[in-house]
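[scheduler] slot 2 assigned
[scheduler] job type: sequence-to-structure, two independent chains
[scheduler] chain ordering preserved from manifest
[runner] begin chain α
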Amino acid sequence: MSAPPLELGAVEKGQTTSMRPRNAVDDPQSRGDDMTYSAAPSRTFGQKIKKFEQQLVAYNLEARGIQRVEPHETHAVTWKSYVQTFLLWFSINLAANNITLGMLGPAVYALSFKDSSLCAVFGCLVGSIPVAYIATWGPVSGNRTLIFARYTMGWWPSKLIVLLNLIVLLGYALIDCVVAGQILSAVSPNGSMSVVVGIIIVAVITWGVTTFGIQVFHYYERYAFLPQLIVTSILYGVSSPNFDLTTPSTGDPRTIIGNRISFFSICLSAAITYAGASADYFVYYPPTTPLLPIFTLSLLGLLLSFTFTLVLGAGLASAITLAPSYATAYSDSGPGALLVQGFTPLHTFGKFCAVVVALGLIANTIPPTYSSGVDFQMLGRRAEKVPRFIWNTVGVVIYTVCALAGRNSLSEIFTNFLALMGYWVAIWIALTVEEQVVFRRRRGYDWEVWNKREKLPIGIAALIAFLVGWVGAILCMAQVWYIGPIAREVGEFGAD
C-alpha cells in the first residue's frame, strides 16, 4: 500500500474523528430499521467489547469492519499501488493448494498432461475475469464485496449470498490447512510430524496476520510470492524429467469430453470463487482510481499464478503412470506427499523447499480468513456489533476443526466442494452484471445507503432469478453423489 503510514494507520484504527465518520454502527438512527436494544445487559456487554477493541487498537489492530470507506478516508494511488494489485493476486495463488488442484486432471479425471494443462489454463482464465471485474468495485463504492450484493439482491436475500460465501471462504482455508499438514508431515523424519500439527501451525499464523487487519495483510502479500516463486521453479526443474507428456487421456471419446468439461469447471470454480471477496482488498483505493489498470493487473496476477501452479500439478500427477515412487506417494499419503516426492532428488534441501511451499499456503489462507470476519458481520445487526477480529477467530476455529476431521479426504473435498461452490458465484455474477448494465445504467448507485434497509431493493426478483439459476445448475451438475439429467448425457461419468 502506498499511503503515508500515519494516515493509513489512522484510517484502519479509526482513531480520529475525521477518519471515522458516523455510520450505521455508531448511529442507531441510520440503521434503516426500528430495532432497539433497550436491555441493559446487552449495552453493558457491547460496551465491554468496544472497550476491549479500543485497547487492541493501540497494537495496530484494524477496527473497521463492514463500515463504508468514505472518499476522504482513502489513500493516494501511485505506481506502487498498482504493483501491489498484481502482487496481491500473484502471491495469493502461487500456492500448493493450486498445485494439488492441478493434480486432479491426470489423477482423478484420467486426462493427459496436455488436456489437463489446457483445461486448467482456460478454466482459470474464464474464472478470473469476474474476480477482476468485482475487484474494481472496491475503489468505486468503498464497500466490502457482499455489501455491494445488497444493491442487487436486496437486504434479506443478500444474507443467503453471505452464508454461501462464508462456506466458500472457510472451505478454502480448510483445504489450505490440510495440504500444508500433508506436506509438513511428509517431510518430517519417517512422517513423525502428524498432519494435525501442520494444520494447527498454518491456522495459528494465519490468525495472527488477519487479526491485525488490512495493512499487515497487504504487507505480507507484497513479499510472500518471492520464496514461493523460487521453490516452485526449483520443483519444475527437478520433477519435469518424470512428467508423462505422451500418454493420452483414458476413456471413450464421450467420457474424455465429459472429464475435460468437469476438470475445466473445477479450475474455473477455483478462480471465480474469489469474486465473493475481491473488492474487500481495494476499498482504501480512492473512487477516482482508473478501473482498467485494477482490472488488468488483477487478471494478470490471477492468470499467471494459476497457470504456473496448475500446470505444475498436472505434470506431477502425470508422472504417476511412469514413476512408481510418485504413484506410491500419492496412493499412500495423498497430493501433499506427491508434491514432496518431486523434491526428493535434492535430498535435505528438497525437504527444506517443501517446508517453504507448505508455509506459502499461509498467503492463500489469509484472504479468505480476513474476508470471513467481514462477512460474519453482515449476517445481522447484532453480528455487526461484534468486532471483526473476533469473527476472524471464530472462522479460524471452524475451519481448523473441519480440517482436522477431513484431513484424509482431500481429493473428495476438492472435487465436490469447489465445483458446487462455483455454481452460486456464477449465478450471482450474472445478476450483478445484469443489474449494472440493464437496471442501473442511467441512475447508478447511491453508496451512502449501504446500511439503510428501507432504501435498498427488496430483492424478490433477484432471489427468484437466483433460485432459477440453481435449477439449471442442478440439471447440469455432475458430482460423486448426484449427476443431473443433462450432465448424464455426456460420457460414463457425466460432465459438470
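[runner] end chain α
[runner] begin chain β
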Amino acid sequence: MPLFNIRELVAASPDGGNTSEVIINGIHFNSTILQLFNYTYYESNRTLSNGSNCWLAFDAYKPTLFTNGTFINGTSCYEPYYGISHRGGIGIIFACLFGLTIVPTLVNLTKHGRLFLPNEKRFRAIGRRWQWYWMLFVAACGMISGLTGIDVDRDYVLSLPIILQSFFNFLLIPAILAVVWEAVRHWGSWQERQIYDHDPFSLPQDDRRANTEFYLPLVFYLFDWLYFFMTIPRSWTKIQFQRSPEQQNALAKPTATDSRFKIAGFLAFFAWCTICYSLRHSIHHYKPRNRGLFNRLFGFLRYCPTKFLLTIPLLLIKIVYATASAFVWDVSPLKVNGNFGWMYGLGHAPALLILIIFEIWGYLEPNEDRALMTQRAQRGRTLDEELGIVKKPSWWSKLAGDRYSSNDARLKALTTEVGGGRATGRNIEEAIELGVLPLPSVDPFRDEVDEPRDNDDVDYRSRNRGPYADSDGTSTTRAESVRTVSTYSARPQQVRSMLDI
C-alpha cells in the first residue's frame, strides 16, 4: 500500500465540488492528474496530448482518465477519421498506373537483356539493363508516394504518412534522372557498337571521344548523388507539424524551403544538362555531321530519337517544379493543404509519362543482338553480290549440287561420306563387317609370299582358283599363274588417305 493516495492531493471545496476539476467534452478530469502526466488540451484541434499519447476529445469521443495516468474509452489521434479526399483519390490513380508499368518493364527487361551473341568486354550486357532496373525503382517510389496519400487524408492529426509521401516524392527525382540518363547513354553505346561491328578499327579507345564517354557517367552520377544526399538523409519530423496554421508556418514551412532543397534543385538541373550533352555527343560522333548552325540544329532534330525528344522536356518540367517548390511554399508537395494539381500534374505525371514512353519504344525496338545478327547477314549478302557468289538455298539436294561441283569437290565429298581421315585397319574391318567392302581371299597387307614350287603349281592354283579363274571354268596357264602370284607377292602401297585407295 502506498503511503498516500494521489486523490489526497486534490482539495475538496466546501460545497462538495472539486475546485481542481476540468470539464472537457462533458467529462470531468482532475487537473492535478493532468498536470502530473503532462497532458494538455488543445482547443485548435480539440485533442488531449502529452507529446507521446494523443486522444480525441470532441463529439462522441469521451476518454476517461484514471489516477495512474491511463485512459479508457479513448481514440488515438493518429487513427483514420476523415474520408479519402483529393490527395488520396488522385494518389490511388497514380499508384495503380505506376503499378501497371511494372509488367511491361519486366517484359522489356527480358527482351532487351537477353544475350544471343557472346558477351563482349567493350559492350557489357548490364549496360542495356540498367534503364529497366531504374524504371522498376521509379514505379515502386510512385506507388508508395501515391498510396500514402490515403492516410494523409484520413488521419485526424498528421504523422508518419505525410513524411513517407514526401520522402518517396523526392526520392523519385534522382531515380527518374537515372532512367533518362541510362537510356541516352545506352543509345550512344548502341550506335558505337554498330559501327564497331562493321569496322573494329574505326573507333579507337584512347581518343578524345572515348575519354569523354568515360568521364560523362562520373559527372552525371556525381550530380545525381549530390541531389540525393542533399534531400534524402535529413530530419523529416518537422514536416508533420501542420496541425495548425501557426505550427505550419513556424515549423513545416522553414523545413520545406531551406537551403538544402534549393541547392538540390540546381544540382538536378546540372544532371539534366549532362544528359543533353551526352545525347549531343553521341549524335556528333556516330551520325553524319552537318556544317553551319542551322544545319547542325536540324541534324540534331533529325537524328535524335523521338523518345528523347519527348522524355527530356518532361524531365525538365519535373526538375523545374521541384526547384520552384523549394522557393514557393504554396506549390510545395510538402504542404498538406496545398494545390494537388501542382503536385500530381507537375510532379507525378511527367515521371509516369516518361515510363510509358520508354515502355512503348521498348516494345517496338528489337533486341540488339538480333538486330546485329540481321546487319551481319545483310552485309554478307551484299559482299556475295559484289563477288558474284550465289548461295544455294537450303532445299538444294546433294545430287543436284554434285552436277555443278568440281572434281576436287567430289573427291572431298567421297572422303566425307566414308568418314574422313586416313584409312585404318579398324575402319576397314568395320566396312567388311558391314558388307561395304568384299572379303579378299588373299591378305593384301602380307609383306612376303613364298614362291611356289613346280610340283605345287596345281595346288596353289586350286587354292586361289575362285577370283582368278576363267569364265568357262578352265584353269590358267603356268605363266599366268606365276604372273598372278608375282602380282600379289609385291610389297603393298602404304595408304595415307582414302584418296590413295
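[runner] end chain β
[qc] chain β: The chain has a mean pLDDT of 80.
[scheduler] slot 2 released
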